[in-house]
Design a protein that fits this description.
Blueprint: H1 3-20, E1 30-31, H2 33-40, H3 44-56, E2 67-68, H4 69-97, H5 103-130, H6 139-156, H7 164-181
Antiparallel strand pairs: 1-2
Helix pairs in contact: 1-4, 2-3, 3-4, 4-5, 4-7, 5-6, 6-7
């Protein structure tokens, strides 16, 4: 996949996410995005990641704007989907074009491709099927399967590989998506 296709994927993602928003919970609490982020995280970098995700999804960050929590949860799941896709493409490109990869690195990247395929299936199911249709049974299972696959990939890699920082960032995004899901009280 070319860089222009990756950029297009990242530009279209917020539109796809906006269509997936739903108000699942009768009497669901509406809150400001910045409040939702501060409820879940204590550290400044984690709050910043949450706010970046909200801005990426086109959420109005003003104090007067409030949305139902399911929208924030869905947005975080879609952000993870898109990030996982970019990392998977980067791994594939390294395998295809980086002739200096050692046999061990190549094996690790191939394993990560499989790990990311599994992680992508689980987080996409959350973002595309479960949250929009308000089916919360097994939601925790799906998040955990996605996160476990990312961690498996991370454990395969040396910290010095170009892919490692991307996988580490994906782990943070998956954990954030999971914790935001606690807002809707189903985890």
């Amino acid at each position: 996949m070319t860089m222009s296709k990756i950029i297009l994927l990242l530009l279209v993602a917020p539109l796809r996410m906006a269509a997936a928003r739903s108000d699942c919970l009768p009497g669901g609490q509406h809150m400001e995005a910045s409040f939702a982020c501060s409820m879940m995280w204590l550290s400044k970098p984690q709050q910043d990641l949450c706010i970046r995700i909200m801005i990426w999804g086109g959420i109005d960050m003003s104090v007067s704007h409030k949305e139902e929590e399911t929208g924030y949860v869905t947005l975080a799941a879609w952000f993870a989907v898109e990030s996982f896709d970019v990392t998977r493409i980067a791994a594939r490109n390294q395998l295809s074009h980086n002739t200096s990869l050692s046999g061990q690195e190549r094996h690790a990247y191939e394993g990560c491709m499989k790990d990311y395929a599994l992680a992508g299936r689980h987080i996409t199911r959350v973002a595309n099927e479960m949250l929009p249709s308000c089916r919360f049974t097994d939601l925790s299972y799906e998040y955990n399967r996605a996160l476990n696959s990312i961690v498996t990939c991370m454990n395969r890699l040396s910290v010095n590989t170009p892919l490692y920082p991307m996988v580490l960032a994906d782990q943070d995004k998956a954990v954030l998506a999971y914790h935001l899901a606690t807002l809707i009280g189903v985890l």
